Amino acid sequence: MTRINVGKQHPDVYEQLATLSGAAEGAAFDAGLDRKLIELVKLRVSQINGCAFCCRLHSRAALRAGETADRLAVLPAWRESQYFSAEEVAALSIAEDVARLSHSVCDEDSEDALTAEKVSAVTWVATVMCAWNRVAIRSGYQVSP
Questions:
Q1: Contact 45, 55 (CB under 8 A)
Q2: What is the sign of the dihedral through the CA atoms of 109, 114, 119 and 125?
Q3: Which residue among 30, 33, 72, 109 has the highest number of C-beta atoms inside a 10 angstrom radius?
């Protein structure tokens, strides 16, 4: 049996997720997060969830936003690199914490680099990204060269 595209099966639910996604991104911008960091959060969550479609989408979006190939290359091992600022480290830590609910990986002290508004915004962006990953994977979105 082929995968059912859940967005096409229930387009009204898909649109509500898109609306929620826009609201989460708007909150991130309002909190002062820049486009590159938002894309890094989306990409890191997608890497953890194994969503090839979203990894490709957000890698390209990050590059368009001015992200470097070097930083994207080390993103899966960001904790071992010196490429990321304290704010980025905090955001990536929160993103991983959201994506890996089975165990907390977030060093709460690292959150001190972010305001409460930014912590909340990153949490919402990561939460919505997890939902998008599940829609794409479950629907069998194709990722071809």
A1: no
A2: negative
A3: 33
